[in-house]
């Protein structure tokens, strides 16, 4: 019966209850009817004090930074840079889509924000160039899985808080996996575009002079994420302060460099920030109360022991965890899945000698792949709703990209040196 709250979470979620309420309701149910030794006011106190966390302030700052960048012209400059670099390739605008998501990882830090933005900007352009709308939506959703892997992703901050690892090291670890995912998707786009005869968006490769001119024009956009990482690396500021600096830098660039940020954008930026922050933080706070129940019943320890009895081979365990996470990711939103599962799986990984930084990248990539996979992938629904593509048409186009992302996941899982090389230099 002690596992009933876990089953209740999934039952409520599939009945359409928001995951935050499902987590909190299940925990309250447990402490009210199963273990009355914990007074209800202490459970509510845990709910309130969980939000009083300095590291959590990084989330609203990075959400706001992403919104400011969209209105300040930074996102547009990144798209222009992506087109100069890859527009001449087979499947030009689809390749631009992938590179744009890779650039946007250091900007929005959110897969759904990236999917929504590119659905509005790039998909209509792709349709005009002869790409089918369903293919355009599929590559947009698939490429958005890269955004949270390239720093500074919001899910990275959440994992670092749960696993008690360095945010700066986790940020740096994301670059190589993100590039591997982008390469796998670009190769898949080339194969499909060659078969369907999708034309490049540019007639010829950009000259070095043209690339240099665009790089100079986009240098402020490109330097922002690297500035954040370098500041963290050299101890100039904490992750929370890094978020505030990203907001300030974005505002200054939008006002004085690109001159596209206007006074009437303030309302939209604040609304984006409030909505994005409220959704994420409410889930985190509810999950902390649910985690109180897990700790009270020693479920993470029991779960670790059960998995270790199944196999003590870490490579076999990684395969089992990958399959498990891919299945869970199809049904649970990424942040919620990470918050629920990380406390259960990180102790297993550590017990088998798997580096928690490496394991964090495995978890994040798994959950992002789940986000584009039917039946309940969150980026799938975001992209389909914005582009007005039916889920059936989307499903027919997305499978080659899911296979490409799974191939990248396997490489990242079984070649930890690729992930840990950059953090090891810190």
UniProtKB/TrEMBL annotation:
<comment type="subunit">
    <text>The complex comprises the extracytoplasmic solute receptor protein and the two transmembrane proteins.</text>
</comment>
<protein>
    <recommendedName>
        <fullName>TRAP transporter large permease protein</fullName>
    </recommendedName>
</protein>
<dbReference type="GO" id="GO:0022857">
    <property type="term" value="F:transmembrane transporter activity"/>
</dbReference>
<feature type="transmembrane region" description="Helical">
    <location>
        <begin position="7"/>
        <end position="31"/>
    </location>
</feature>
<dbReference type="InterPro" id="IPR004681">
    <property type="entry name" value="TRAP_DctM"/>
</dbReference>
<feature type="transmembrane region" description="Helical">
    <location>
        <begin position="215"/>
        <end position="236"/>
    </location>
</feature>
<feature type="transmembrane region" description="Helical">
    <location>
        <begin position="315"/>
        <end position="332"/>
    </location>
</feature>
<keyword id="KW-1133">Transmembrane helix</keyword>
<feature type="domain" description="TRAP C4-dicarboxylate transport system permease DctM subunit">
    <location>
        <begin position="7"/>
        <end position="418"/>
    </location>
</feature>
<dbReference type="Pfam" id="PF06808">
    <property type="entry name" value="DctM"/>
</dbReference>
<comment type="similarity">
    <text>Belongs to the TRAP transporter large permease family.</text>
</comment>
<dbReference type="InterPro" id="IPR010656">
    <property type="entry name" value="DctM"/>
</dbReference>
<feature type="transmembrane region" description="Helical">
    <location>
        <begin position="135"/>
        <end position="162"/>
    </location>
</feature>
<feature type="transmembrane region" description="Helical">
    <location>
        <begin position="51"/>
        <end position="71"/>
    </location>
</feature>
<keyword id="KW-0813">Transport</keyword>
<keyword id="KW-1003">Cell membrane</keyword>
<feature type="transmembrane region" description="Helical">
    <location>
        <begin position="273"/>
        <end position="295"/>
    </location>
</feature>
<feature type="transmembrane region" description="Helical">
    <location>
        <begin position="174"/>
        <end position="194"/>
    </location>
</feature>
<keyword id="KW-0997">Cell inner membrane</keyword>
<feature type="transmembrane region" description="Helical">
    <location>
        <begin position="344"/>
        <end position="369"/>
    </location>
</feature>
<keyword id="KW-0812">Transmembrane</keyword>
<comment type="function">
    <text>Part of the tripartite ATP-independent periplasmic (TRAP) transport system.</text>
</comment>
<dbReference type="GO" id="GO:0005886">
    <property type="term" value="C:plasma membrane"/>
</dbReference>
<keyword id="KW-0472">Membrane</keyword>
<feature type="transmembrane region" description="Helical">
    <location>
        <begin position="242"/>
        <end position="261"/>
    </location>
</feature>
<feature type="transmembrane region" description="Helical">
    <location>
        <begin position="398"/>
        <end position="422"/>
    </location>
</feature>
